[in-house]
Each structure stands twice: as structure tokens, then as C-alpha cells.
Amino acid sequence: MVFNSSQGKFNWKIEKCTGEDKSRMQELLERTMYIDEPLTSTLDDVSKGLYKNETAILDILDQGHSFKAITPEGRIVGAAINLACPFSYETYEPFQEVVDFLAHVSRETKLNSHGLLDLYNLGVDPDFRRQGMAKALAQATLDHAQRTGFTGLKVCATSHYTTAVCRSIGLQVIYTLAYEDYRSKDGRPVFTPPPPHTHLQVLLKRFSEESISKM
Ligand SMILES: CC(C)(COP(=O)(O)OP(=O)(O)OC[C@H]1O[C@@H](n2cnc3c(N)ncnc32)[C@H](O)[C@@H]1OP(=O)(O)O)[C@@H](O)C(=O)NCCC(=O)NCCS
């Protein structure tokens, strides 16, 4: 699926990712996810450095379920990095407190994820935000999941904005956790992202048998 936008200040389109996008994707992650994604934004510089050396997330592109937003010059300015469930957070997250947190959320959500596609990582270049790019990437992901036989789409939204994006394309919140309520043994909140990112939400859309076969 290709979606062209000239509604914003910049021109961009959505395309499927390939394994050849890895180095340009790494540059985007360093301009977005490793700076202001709510969980990583709370880490110190040493811990953030662990993410910058992490390449496992780029291997997700080889699965063929991810999408990028690119400019006419070929610059990647947004991405939805998607992977088939089930998977282990340990494979993709270098920081143990993040692994523990996301594993806790998975357990508490009590969801059988077999057959679902997970929108694992949604990021937009700061210069291209508020143009509907994240929504277009999420919609492309949803259409792809339905077309290729997944039974639904799941998103673990650490950002308030991702929750808004996913709700706008029909996902429903199935689990909520206030960051304030996830505490270490000494009683302190482990993650304290800036407002409005006060809660993590898990969102889901299941496809009916009928809608999968119609695509
Ligand atoms: C979250 C993120 C991907 C959103 O990208 P985006 O392209 O700006 O989002 P969209 O333009 O598609 O916005 C869709 C909706 O999200 C909400 N939203 C997004 N950014 C917002 C902001 N800065 N303030 C308020 N609402 C916002 C709005 O409801 C918006 O709809 P509207 O513009 O019609 O009001 C982007 O802010 C980002 O990359 N953040 C850093 C990485 C991150 O946190 N990723 C998500 C991890 S779960």
C-alpha cells in the first residue's frame, strides 16, 4: 500500500521496509525513539548508549511486516517496526528494567498473542510530527496485518500519543498501567516519563474470520 501526503509542510509517502533500510532506520531511531520515547527518555546517558549499540531491533525488518515514511530524496522520516507474536522482549531490549517492565505488562494483560502482529515501535522524525504520519503508518500496519492473515493487531503504547493514534484507527484499550504504580522494591516509581505520558496502554484489534478472508 502506498499513501502520498502533501497535506503537511513536507511531502512523504509510506512504503514497506526491506532489510536494506537498516542503516537509515538506525539513524531515524537515534533521532526519535532513543531520545523522546517515554521509557527511554527517563534513562540516563549510559543506558541510552546501550540502545544506540543495539541492532537486534533492525533485524525485525527482515520479517517483512514493517513500514517506513520516506521523502522524495529517500530519507526515512517515520517508521512502524512490526513483528509477529509471540516474541521475547529480551531479544530486542538491551535494558533489563525495560525488559522486566514489558514482561510484567504482558503477564498482567493475560492475552494469548499467537497469530497477532505487534506494532512494536512507532517513531516519527521531530521535524515531521503532527502531519498524520504516525496514523498513516499505523493504518498501513493494520491493513497489512489483515491482508496477510494475522488474526489481529496489538500495540503496547508507552506514549499517550500512540494511544490516540491507535484509537483513531479502531484499536481498543485492553490494559492500562499508571507509571506511578509500577515501583521498585524500595518503593520508587521505576519510570517517570514527562506529562502527558502518565500511563502505558495495551491496545488490540482482532479481525473477524470474514474480514480476513475478504482482503
Ligand atoms: C508518537 C509519535 C510517533 C506521533 O507521531 P506523529 O506523526 O506526530 O502523530 P500524528 O500526526 O499521526 O498524530 C496522531 C494523533 O496523535 C496525537 N498527538 C500526536 N502528537 C501529539 C502532540 N505532540 N500533542 C498532542 N497530541 C498529539 C493527536 O491526537 C494526533 O491527532 P491530531 O493531530 O488529529 O490531533 C511521535 O510523537 C514520536 O515519534 N514520538 C517519539 C517516539 C515515541 O514516543 N514513540 C511511541 C512509542 S509507543
Could you characterize the architecture of this molecule?
By secondary structure, the chain is of the alpha+beta class. The protein has a single domain, classed as Aminopeptidase (3-Layer(aba) Sandwich), CATH 3.40.630.30. The chain is built from 9 helices and 8 strands. Strands 1-2-3-4-5-6-8-7 form an 8-stranded mixed β-sheet, with helices on both faces. Strand 1 and strand 2 form a beta hairpin. It is globular and about 50 Å long. 35% of the residues are buried. The model has no long low-confidence stretch (mean pLDDT 92). Coenzyme A binds next to helix 2, strand 5, helix 7 and helix 8. Pfam families: Acetyltransf_1. This is N-acetyltransferase domain-containing protein. InterPro entries: Acyl_CoA_acyltransferase, GNAT_dom.
What ions, cofactors and ligands are bound?
A: coenzyme A
Strand order of the largest sheet: 1-2-3-4-5-6-8-7
What about the largest sheet? 8 strands, mixed
Helix content, binned percent: 25-40%
Mean pLDDT across residues = 92
- Extract low-pLDDT stretches: none
Strand and helix order? EEHHHHEEHHEHEHEEH
Shape: globular
Determine the N-to-C terminus distance.
13 Å
- Please give the count of helices: 9
Portion in strands: 15-25%
Structural category: alpha+beta
Which CATH-level-2 architecture? 3-Layer(aba) Sandwich
